[in-house]
Amino acid sequence: MLSSAGRRAFAALARPTLRSDVAFAFRPSPAALRRLLSALAVLEQRDGKLNAGSLSAVTAAKQLGGSVHGFIAGSNIKAVAEEAAKIEGVEKIIAVDNPAYDKGLPENYAPLLVENIKKGGYTHVVAGTTAFGKNVMPRVAALLDSQQISDITAVQDDKTFVRPIYAGNAIATVESTDAVKVITVRGTAFPAAAVGSGSAAVEEGVDPKADSPTEWVSEDLAKSDRPDLATASRVVSGGRGLKSKEDFDRIMLPLADALGAAVGASRAAVDSGYADNSLQVGQTGKVVAPQLYVAVGISGAIQHLAGMKDSKVIAAINKDAEAPIFQVADVGLVGDLFEKVPELTEKLKKAQA
């Protein structure tokens, strides 16, 4: 029979000992990680119609690997929400019906988004690099105390993204450790998500009805029956070489109609008053990547190349054989644009007759 001292010694030996030099790590499986990820794709609407340009955000959100929900707000939103529910790969549409959000004013739209992000517990918020996205998303990031990841062109994993910097002359790979990652995507880098076969549920979102210090007064939009510049498969752009607005319209518009193309312009042409600023292609304008891009009277400054160099085929017409645009062009024609472009337009019309 053990003495009391012996029993204490035996108990000490039997008691489990915690060792400070042993580390225990729990690593969730990739499938478990995917279940933890959830992305909110911010969809845009205008006058009761879904903006196709924002569908690239859905494609990028799907590449993150988790569940994807869509968000949309505005007046009489039911029809647009039902259309958005048909987007492939979206599990749920969060809709807020309030005319205060029709114009996407960041002062009240950002608090609206933040409330719905917190309610849904989303790990990623994705929007297009559009005028709307550039207005709203930085404010959303600030309210969430996150650093925005802007204008991405690729998703490597749920926390690592690729984006161009220095007007596209360098490519940065960015890794974020923020709890909520706020992302804008370059529309030309991600194809628009298909609408048609989806069957997402539509759920009413939270509306904080935040006061806005600003109000929408009016807008003056340039309307055209031609394809939308941001999504067109063919684009013809004019530059400073066209010399005047009258010549710009006389030369470029018939060429665009003959090709069934959208019309663009360089910053120099816009600053000179030849074209509306909504037509500007470049670093401070629209970024396009059509199947065919025709540059007429454009020298090829870095600022302009940043907005169109991802085009599949680039054709340039310029009288200066040393113009930088010829360094990126697949097809080049050296000559007087006032002679060559009308000649090209006539040949296109005859080919279509």
UniProtKB/TrEMBL annotation:
Note on how the cofactor is bound: Binds 1 FAD per dimer.
Domain Electron transfer flavoprotein alpha/beta-subunit N-terminal stretches: 39-220
Keyword annotations of the record: Electron transport, FAD, Flavoprotein, Mitochondrion, Transport
Gene Ontology BP terms: fatty acid beta-oxidation using acyl-CoA dehydrogenase
Coiled-coil ranges per UniProt: none
Named cofactor requirement(s): FAD
Key word Membrane present: no
Cellular compartment(s): Mitochondrion matrix
Main location: mitochondrion
CDD domains tied to this protein: ETF_alpha
Cross-referenced InterPro entries: DHS-like_NAD/FAD-binding_dom (IPR029035), ETF_a/b_N (IPR014730), ETF_a/FixB (IPR001308), ETF_alpha_N (IPR033947), ETF_asu_C (IPR014731), ETF_asu_C_CS (IPR018206), Rossmann-like_a/b/a_fold (IPR014729)
Positions of FAD binding: 240, 266-267, 280-284, 297-304, 318
GO cellular component, one term: mitochondrial matrix
Function summary: The electron transfer flavoprotein serves as a specific electron acceptor for several dehydrogenases, including five acyl-CoA dehydrogenases, glutaryl-CoA and sarcosine dehydrogenase. It transfers the electrons to the main mitochondrial respiratory chain via ETF-ubiquinone oxidoreductase (ETF dehydrogenase).
Stored PANTHER family: ELECTRON TRANSFER FLAVOPROTEIN ALPHA, ELECTRON TRANSFER FLAVOPROTEIN SUBUNIT ALPHA, MITOCHONDRIAL
Quaternary organization: Heterodimer of an alpha and a beta subunit.
Protein name: Probable electron transfer flavoprotein subunit alpha
Protein species of origin: Chaetomium thermophilum (strain DSM 1495 / CBS 144.50 / IMI 039719) (Thermochaetoides thermophila)
